[in-house]
Every structure is written in C-alpha cells, then in structure tokens.
Specification:
The protein is an alpha+beta fold. It contains 4 helices and 4 strands; from the N terminus they run E-E-H-H-H-E-E-H. The chain has one domain: Ribosomal Protein L22, Chain A (Alpha-Beta Complex). The relative contact order is 0.24.
Length: about 130
C-alpha cells in the first residue's frame, strides 16, 4: 500500500493472476469511477476469471484505508485503476519424439487508487435521496 494524501489510498498488486493484460483490463474498465459498494457488487456478479483477484485487491485496499487511516469504506470510490504488463512465465511442455513446446503465461500488475468523495458532494447526494 502506498499512501499519497489523507483522502487517497494507492494499492499495487504485482505479478498477479496468470492471465493476459487484455482480459484483466476489460474488468478494470467496468469499475473505474464507481463507488466502493457498487464495485463490489459488479465484481461479484461478473463471469470473468479476472474479477476475483481484483475483488480481493479492492477489498484489501478499503480495509487498509479504514484500519490504517480511519477512513470510511462507504465514502470511497475507485478514482483510478491501471493494468500493466509484467513478466512472462515460460515453461516447456514435452511433445512427441523428444521435442518440446514452449508455454508462455503472461502476468500483470494491477494498481488501484481509492479516494474519498467530497463532503459537499455527499451532502448533495443525501439531500437528493431525502427529496
């Protein structure tokens, strides 16, 4: 976890999930800019394999923010989410006649930034709900 300011939490997971960056990016694009609770609901219902490691990462970031900095999880949202390429794990698979076939497994780095919503926006959102 990397702490930038009092209302922002950055978390980075390196060499995560043995899957392509493109497969993870289609899930990350769905949650960027959404609230914490909405993000959890979206990730739990998505049918993709990449959604579970991202769900664990978002959950961990929110728990770190509440424990270390005393921030409320319900008032946070995903301000930024990035996926970058990492190393490629290379293996050899035995084939016929003593030959081998290379297996390439891509890995990726996932970075998520949680921010607190502005208090002025929270008051406006609550006033809209009451009306």
């Amino acid at each position: 976890m990397i702490k930038n300011s009092s209302s922002e939490i950055q978390i980075l997971a390196q060499h995560i999930c043995n899957m392509s960056v493109f497969k993870v990016r289609r899930v990350i694009d769905q949650i960027c800019g959404r609230s914490y609770e909405e993000t959890l609901m979206i990730l739990e219902l998505m049918p993709y394999r990449a959604s579970y490691p991202i769900l664990k990462l978002v959950y961990s970031a929110a728990k770190n923010a509440s424990h270390n900095m005393g921030l409320n999880e319900a008032d946070s949202f995903i301000s930024e989410a990035k996926v970058n390429r990492s190393t490629i794990v290379k293996k050899l698979r035995p084939r016929a006649r003593g030959r081998s076939y290379p297996i390439k497994r891509p890995t990726c780095h996932i970075a998520i930034v949680l921010k607190l919503k502005d208090k002025s926006k929270l008051i406006l959102d609550q006033s809209k709900i009451k009306i």
